[in-house]
Amino acid sequence: xxxxxxxxxxxxxxxxxxxxxxxxxxxxxxxxxxxxxxxxxxxxxxxxxxxxxxxxxxxxxxxxxxxxxxxxxxxxxxxxxxxxxxxxxxxxxxxxxxxxxxxxxxxxxxxxxxxxxxxxxxxxxxxxxxxxxxxxxxxxxxxxxxxxxxxxxxxxxxxxxxxxxxxxxxxxxxxxxxxxxxxxxxxxxxxxxxxxxxxxxxxxxxxxxxxxxxxxxxxxxxxxxxxxxxxxxxxxxxxxxxxxxxxxxxxxxxxxxxxxxxxxxxxxxxxxxxxxxxxxxxxxxxxxxxxxxxxxxxxxxxxxxxxxxxxxxxxxxxxxxxxxxxxxxxxxxxxxxxxxxxxxxxxxxxx
Length: 351
Ligand code: PEP
Ligand code: MN
What we know:
Alpha-Beta Plaits, TIM Barrel, 2 domains, four-stranded antiparallel β-sheet
């Protein structure tokens, strides 16, 4: 149930409405927007049957939520959510500008992660990615540097000022990853790892939730709902391609998912053109299409020497190709009514 309050509602009236709902056994979620305040009710709606909600002072309208996701739903929150990452909010998602995260698939050693961070920053990225715990299809493939990789990411954040995002695969790794990273990534293979999602609800770090290989948009939103229902509302969704019958690309980028998600949820939506296409040559056109379709950001794999990458070399951009993509991105952002966020914008937003 969603209660929209009158424009002149008082705090006392809001408190009274919430008390009546909570006394009936439901939870409430208050969202104050620029123009309206919404009180969302969470729980079994039949409990509210006997409460005369429409007659309470300050209530303008009462609407049932028919969608299974509530906290993630667009109707539940007055304004779009802007997720800020990093203690000084160096990067943000869902505001007027588009944010680019770039870096290697995996952290391989100190020199390469530092070199990659500097080159992606110089080309205009405002966040660094890099896997320390890697979900590999083969148990014989490189599994990531683990805890040492996390330590290197934190060191490189200190050296470059770029906030870092890295994957967490298991509930037992959550505290360690949260200690080192500014944003925690849930990979496609773990999108429905419900104990992990619940644990991430208790963490005070934004979450980058990637769409599962065969997940519907509704399932992606229900996964976000798990994190939010457990207390963490800072969730960024990521379309990274889904598995279809097409074999010409690693996955099929679901471009329509971007406007559909923007209609259904207030959460920011970004796109991973690297894992979608699985081919460095496809990264730029897919990135441009994503921005044209309304994405709030991109996450792109970049390697100083893709030929020698320990994972995902085929889809990783070489430094020059990444710089070229960044220089061409501006025009697509402008066509979509956006700008590309720069480190300068982010620090100004905080000041
Ligand atoms: C990754 O970001 O390196 C990764 C493994 O992505 P996904 O979970 O989307 O496959
Ligand atoms: Mn990868």
